[in-house]
Structures are given as structure tokens and as C-alpha cells.
Structure prediction request, 419 residues.
Amino acid sequence: MGEGVLVVGAGAREHALVWALARSPEVDRVVATPGNAGMAGLAECVDLADDDAVVAYAAAEQLWVVVGPEAPLARGLADRLAAAGVRVVGPSRAAARIESSKADAKRVMRAAGIPTAEAVVVHGWREAEAALDRFPAGVVVKADGLAAGKGVTVCEDRTEAAAALRALLVDDALGPAGRTVVLEERLAGEEMSVMVVTDGTRFAYLPPARDYKRLGTGDVGPNTGGMGAVAPHPAWTPALADEVAARIIDPVLTQLRREGRPFRGVLYAGLMLTAEGPKVLEFNARFGDPEATVMLPLLEDDLFPWLVAAGGGPWPARAPRWTGAAVGVVLAAPGYPGRVATGIPITVEPGEGAVVFHAATVRDGAGRLVNGGGRSLVAVGLGSDPETARKRAYAQVERIRFEGAQWRRDIGETSRPGR
Ligand code: AMP
Ligand code: GLY
Prediction:
């Protein structure tokens, strides 16, 4: 008899996880909570009202639990599941602080000697304004806490930095998440999202990806949760893998073990490939979104044994292998990343060599597919090479009707972004 898995979340990342798990020969039941309308046929979607209900349901149904988003991890859902004897993939609340507090992540990196941007942590407006003098070459203002990808401002000048600080520290725009602020040196280079599966000591790489954080084509406009992704990252090499392992992944895992909070699950390192080598921009305690939508379809090996390994099970003998290329284009509702309208009808006609992952889509009273949030779909093109994947992704976008949708035209283009 196969295993049953409950995926927690409603996004494209969770849709991609459900899609990968549904293909596993070891899994015969996939459930998602709350899931989304795109998962029909792959997973049962159940509406579990809160963490208590998730724990009770998973225990009663004897399911593995894979926690997709950061918020439940930061609340301690993995600890609660483990305490109830449920097998869970996702770090403890203490380990997830590496994502839920950017100040904590900076302290860990400093303690472990991990390359990262120079930074100071500030709490008040005056202290923050004075600290700006220390970053003459450009500064990035980061809310300490979780902000769904919207807590970071990469500043063009001091005026913009002061405005970003004022919003967080004077106007309280993000509430408690923004009352502690990390100010850091602005780094230049190409970004890379590296994810590993880990049991706290051992780790294995998953396909490295490139995320596109800015809203607009040409890498302009505000930062978002991610407007597209490609995998594998064109700059990934065996030598870089060794360097990232030795300078970043091993040290952070060792440091967290030393601090009595081993990290088990999927650890995401957001890197900037600078002239001085890779430096860490952030750690996340989970799969990236949209990165998961381009990484998971490339795996040649079953994902499930790796999730089991991260959840305390046996460690597979051979590292995961991947092949081909994937390009994912996010379609976001009008207004994103600000206020968005929901309930906009969506139709998707499947295209060749493509998969469409949904995020927070629902069926309305009339049974129509409608959006339920900002980022609503990811059109993923697959191919043996990046250019084929890119063409298929955009051909798929053309087969989607979603009034007023915003998407970038340059995902997967080979020219390097300006920053
Ligand atoms: P984070 O959530 O910390 O990864 O920041 C979100 C995005 O802001 C990153 O993916 C980068 O595009 C940008 N960013 C963050 N930190 C820096 C930095 N020190 N220098 C330049 N860009 C940055
Ligand atoms: N795409 C960035 C993230 O998942 O945090």
C-alpha cells in the first residue's frame, strides 16, 4: 500500500508539489488544504479551518504532511504535527526563523562566516536614518519579518531609502514585521535560487532556478513574490555547487545544529553571484514560489523519497537527477502587487509541452474558474533546451484568457538582466 500525503497551501508551489506527488509510484493518495481549483483530478481539496484541524486530520488519516508556505512554519505547525506523531516535511518554528527574521538570518550568517551583504539592524527612525551614512554605494531596506515578498526595497538613492524606512518605522506599513529593519549594502550580480533537501546534516541539491522578482518586463518596477522563473539556472556548474556547499549550505546547517535547532526540510538560499563569489541575500525555509513550478517538472527521480528523507526517513543512495529546461511565466491579476480584484474569470486551453499551475484559483457559484488572489497562474513551458521551453511557455500564455492580467515578456530571455 502506498502512502498518503497532505500538502498545506493554495499556491502554484503547492500545485506543483501535488503534481509531482501524484506521479510518485509510492504515493496513492494526495490531499491539499485548502488547495486550489487547478488541483482537481490530482488531489482531494479539503478546507481545514486552522492548524488544530490540520493536525487532527493528518493524524486521523495517517498522512505525511508537506508544508508549502512560510507562515504556518513560522507559527510552529511542523512542531505541532511532530508532537502529534505525524510525519512532516518542514522545519521547526525555531529553524524557520532563518526566514521569518532577517535579523536572525544575518546573525546566523555572521556566526558561521557565510558570505553576505554588510548589514545593520535598526529599530527606530532616527537610528535608521543615521545608519544610512554607512551605505554610500547603495542600500537595501528590508523588513525583518514575513511580508510575502513585499518587505524589501532596493533603493536607488537616499531619498528612496528614507521613504522606505519611514513607511516601515513611522507609518507602520507592515505592522510588527517592519518594526525591526535590516539595512544592507546593495550588491550587484546575477541572482540564483538554490534549494536543498536536508535532514539537518546531509543535503542534496534540487534543480537550481532563477527567479524574476521585479514586476515589469526589463526588470523594472516594484519587487514582488516572483513574476517568473527558469530552471536549471544557466550559471550553475559543478564548481559552483561545490563552492555553495562549502561556503554556504554546510556552514548554515552546522550553525543551526549548534544552536539546537537543526533544519529539516527544504532550505532555500537566495544568492547573488557577485564579482567576489556567491553571497546570500536571504534564506527561506521552504520551496520557492514560483521556483517550484519550474524545478519539480525537471526531476527524473521521484520527489517523494526525498521528502521522506527530509522528514527523518532513509537517505536515498543517489542524488536527485534532472534533465531539460523549464520556463514559468506568472500571470497576476490587475493591481498586483497592490490591491487586486478577485473573481475574474479565467479560461485555460492546454498547450503542447506546457503545464499550467494555479495559485488560489477557485470555482465561483456558477462553476466558473476565477482568480482568488494576485499571482494566479504560472504557465510553464518544458523542453530539452531553454529556448524551446521559453517558446512553449509564451505559447501557453496566449492560450489563457484572464482579463487585465499582467505578465512579463522577458522570462527566460538569454540576455542578462541589468541588476
Ligand atoms: P530578499 O527577500 O531578501 O531575497 O530580497 C528580495 C529581493 O530584493 C532579492 O531577490 C533581490 O532581488 C533584492 N535584494 C535583496 N537584497 C539585496 C542586496 N543586498 N543587494 C541587491 N539586491 C537585493
Ligand atoms: N520566489 C521567491 C520566494 O519563494 O521566496
